[in-house]
Amino acid sequence: MSRFATLNAQAPVTLYHDGHCPFCRVEVAWLAKHRHHERVKLVDIQSREFDAEAIGRSFDAMMGQLHLQDRQGYWYVGMDASRALYAVLGYRRLVRLSCLPGLRSVMDAGYRFFARRRIRLGQWWEKRQDKSVS
Fold it and tell me: How distant is the alpha carbon of residue 87 from its chain centre?
């Protein structure tokens, strides 16, 4: 896959997200209000109706990294899923910038670091949010 392949993602896309993840919930709420929200179908992989095997994926793999499928059936995983999502939302310049050598590898590594720790970070973040409201 070329480093700019995510710019070719075709709307509408389906974004598979973890509805139990606090960070995912914030992003999904933002996406639901976005001016181009009709370009994105949101699927909570934690819902009872969701079946990863029905789409040829494993639930564990989908819990490990963000997954997005575009209109043509192409899959984007991890940071590439974020890039494809933002490309279809109209942030193509930002996506192109994130694909530059050096920056791309730093962002990919940062995503992997975050993805492995998102549950613990989310719990910590929610506790901090609860304390600031009190």
Answer: 12
